[in-house]
């Protein structure tokens, strides 16, 4: 249930174009910058010439296909972690190696780690979680055609990669419990199916999600689990997703937006909406396909989002990206204790990137026409 493909995507993207665009533009920008810096205005004609070339190239790429242009965003710096030289500890991973990934931002301004491959030791987290005798919940909504299309693969790959070696309880929310595939589960892993009402529009499924989660967290799920992840079903696991990702509250950097400057992020801007962020507000753009935390923290998060959505609805409003807009508002007000890099929830449609070393969840290609009624 991922309704946030904000940028139009063309599908005939070739890998070579990507590489070419990256190389050519890296080189051009580098030339231009060093020339401008070294030679100053003396050489303004040459700089101008390069600028024209650059603009023409950009235009060409734009005509050739958006993806190539989009790929340029990797040149927008993410910033560096001021804490990297100090030690940041985490309850599950022990000492984090924030300096191990100088190519990316590894902490937030409020001191939360941003988990990238190489900054944590998965074995330490594994031992810590076993020692704490944790039960980890994973909730997923499989409504309408999303059930047949995505649920089996989501669960099969979760068995292979999600919290392997821990006690796990899956909660599948669906309007058709009988259609949920019965998969063989590993030891100390269980699947529970909860019936939900069928909503007429997919927007309403999204609207109801927070309220349904809130109720579940106050019931059996909340009694059974210590930490819970809430995920969209139209994705599958592709790498180890372990207890290093656990924290009081966990947010996921959106794969499409993690390089973008704050003023470009697709927050809700209508000031009448409960999800609205004013200009200058917002830290990152978080993806609603994955969020998590302790049961208590998630109770508050889901209550806050559900109330915001209800308030908007009584005013005849609907936030731009539905529950994701409200989630972003919540995480602006109450900062997440841990942020997951886009490696944890990656979109293969973006193409390969050097900084994405080890994707753990991959979005399925969007087929809205097929799955949305
Ligand atoms: C670990 O938790 C499970 C279920 O919550 C419980 O049945 C079991 O007794 C616990 N084990 C220990 C050693 O506390
Ligand atoms: C670590 O655990 C302690 C106590 O269990 C808790 O108070 C603290 O908030 C946790 N820290 C993080 C970053 O989750």
Automatic annotation (TrEMBL):
<dbReference type="GO" id="GO:0005794">
    <property type="term" value="C:Golgi apparatus"/>
</dbReference>
<dbReference type="InterPro" id="IPR005076">
    <property type="entry name" value="Glyco_trans_6"/>
</dbReference>
<keyword id="KW-1133">Transmembrane helix</keyword>
<keyword id="KW-0472">Membrane</keyword>
<dbReference type="Pfam" id="PF03414">
    <property type="entry name" value="Glyco_transf_6"/>
</dbReference>
<feature type="binding site">
    <location>
        <position position="234"/>
    </location>
    <ligand>
        <name>Mn(2+)</name>
    </ligand>
</feature>
<keyword id="KW-0328">Glycosyltransferase</keyword>
<feature type="binding site">
    <location>
        <begin position="232"/>
        <end position="234"/>
    </location>
    <ligand>
        <name>UDP-N-acetyl-alpha-D-galactosamine</name>
    </ligand>
</feature>
<dbReference type="InterPro" id="IPR029044">
    <property type="entry name" value="Nucleotide-diphossugar_trans"/>
</dbReference>
<feature type="active site" description="Nucleophile">
    <location>
        <position position="324"/>
    </location>
</feature>
<keyword id="KW-0812">Transmembrane</keyword>
<keyword id="KW-0735">Signal-anchor</keyword>
<feature type="binding site">
    <location>
        <position position="146"/>
    </location>
    <ligand>
        <name>UDP-N-acetyl-alpha-D-galactosamine</name>
    </ligand>
</feature>
<feature type="binding site">
    <location>
        <position position="232"/>
    </location>
    <ligand>
        <name>Mn(2+)</name>
    </ligand>
</feature>
<keyword id="KW-0479">Metal-binding</keyword>
<dbReference type="GO" id="GO:0046872">
    <property type="term" value="F:metal ion binding"/>
</dbReference>
<dbReference type="GO" id="GO:0031982">
    <property type="term" value="C:vesicle"/>
</dbReference>
<protein>
    <submittedName>
        <fullName>Alpha-1,3-galactosyltransferase 2</fullName>
    </submittedName>
</protein>
<comment type="similarity">
    <text>Belongs to the glycosyltransferase 6 family.</text>
</comment>
<keyword id="KW-0464">Manganese</keyword>
<keyword id="KW-0808">Transferase</keyword>
<feature type="binding site">
    <location>
        <begin position="141"/>
        <end position="143"/>
    </location>
    <ligand>
        <name>UDP-N-acetyl-alpha-D-galactosamine</name>
    </ligand>
</feature>
<feature type="binding site">
    <location>
        <position position="254"/>
    </location>
    <ligand>
        <name>an alpha-L-fucosyl-(1-&gt;2)-beta-D-galactosyl derivative</name>
    </ligand>
</feature>
<feature type="transmembrane region" description="Helical">
    <location>
        <begin position="47"/>
        <end position="66"/>
    </location>
</feature>
<dbReference type="GO" id="GO:0016020">
    <property type="term" value="C:membrane"/>
</dbReference>
<dbReference type="GO" id="GO:0005975">
    <property type="term" value="P:carbohydrate metabolic process"/>
</dbReference>
<dbReference type="GO" id="GO:0016758">
    <property type="term" value="F:hexosyltransferase activity"/>
</dbReference>
<feature type="binding site">
    <location>
        <position position="324"/>
    </location>
    <ligand>
        <name>an alpha-L-fucosyl-(1-&gt;2)-beta-D-galactosyl derivative</name>
    </ligand>
</feature>
